[in-house]
């Protein structure tokens, strides 16, 4: 991969997008300055300008069908073709870079010391890279959005919003980028004025580039660190293996020398005079002495090698320990962030994440998905009569009962205060009331005892199944409406809407 040109390409791409953005932002000013246009106090100047540019409603001064501001229109078209060119080049280089990164990660995965996070990283790298996967459709949406500014086709606008929402659903960026994408999602859900669509598309393109770049930086840094560690270990191992091989060769020579000396002694002892024999023996004994001292050196080298291998082994164990500590810490931090500390069921953050995942799953394959809101009845009276600690205890016990009563695949979260949410997956719509009414009964049967008094606590429930055309918000609102009806109908009951 050409390491230098890739970031340059991204910078260029961002620069082009920024230019486009500036052009877009400049449109209302130009419209305001244009003497041919009446002043647009209602902010519709941009739309009129678009119409002028793309010829659907020519201004009285311009010849029919010709853009009134060819400079601006040309400039936009030029920027778009530059953008398209950059996209192709960047996508190509990104793909090459991605493949190399994936290859490196797969090779490292084969190492017995590869940290446990590596398979997840490899999986991430194997899924279509967000950058080139989403950029082109977004660019198409952008072009479509520009066209829609002049045509005012409501149906097309709705479809474009829907397409953008689908693309957003597939994006999975965290941090600031994720937050801003979420805001754009909300704006799109509110069915935008067509004029706002082009800048929204451009911002999405910028965010996708920014998010992909950050993700790539993370994974590259992670792999580089991993590589460094493994390379260090590999060097030491190679050194040790070479030393081991040299030792084996030296020993073979040494053994052959020793055998030669002993053979020579044997040969001289057989059939030689006493004096010559003694001299020969002395000579050979000196030879054996030399061999023995070399033998001792070899033993010292072997001992040093052993120590080095032991140090290496200890280091590997330490690394493994560190990796598993790190993973444990991460897991427990993640869990803490998602668990409500009082009731030990999932919190609102976890609920939002889960709702999003389940909703996406449901959109792809609409298996019945039930959202139930539960609210403890007259909970204020429990607090007022028995104190907040008693109230807390009641919340904990009810949460435990909920957790223990639903299926493992279902999901229980504290929605806030004395309200809980249960998500049930793949339920039978006809039999939905059964498990929910059973939940109601189980909670009412919890044997609470505060200040020696036996207390019955009940809950009201509002449930709903996701329907065609629903958003998470609309489904939650319906469940809330059902809960409201359950409360109004006398509490301790279930209403399904
Ligand atoms: N002990 C305790 N009380 C809480 C907690 N969170 C909310 N509450 C209390 O829950 C009570 C909710 O009261 P309301 O909203 O008036 O509702 P309610 O008394 O349950 O009446 P209905 O919902 O109409 O049946 C308030 O007294 C809150 O202080 C908590 O974490 N611990």
UniProtKB/TrEMBL annotation:
The Enzyme Commission number assigned here is 2.7.7.65
Domain of life per record? Bacteria
Q: Which GO terms describe its molecular function?
A: diguanylate cyclase activity
CDD domains reported in the protein's UniProt record: GGDEF (cd01949)
- State the GO CC annotations: plasma membrane
One Pfam family for this entry, by name? DGCcoil
What GO terms in the biological process aspect are recorded for it?
cell adhesion involved in single-species biofilm formation; negative regulation of bacterial-type flagellum-dependent cell motility
Q: Where is the GGDEF domain?
A: 367-497
**Needed cofactors:** Mg(2+)
In terms of InterPro entries, this protein maps to: DGCcoil (IPR048516), Diguanylate_Cyclase (IPR050469), GGDEF_dom (IPR000160), Nucleotide_cyclase (IPR029787), Rev_trsase/Diguanyl_cyclase (IPR043128)
This enzyme catalyses:
2 GTP = 3',3'-c-di-GMP + 2 diphosphate
Q: Which NCBIfam families match?
A: GGDEF
Identification of the protein by name:
diguanylate cyclase
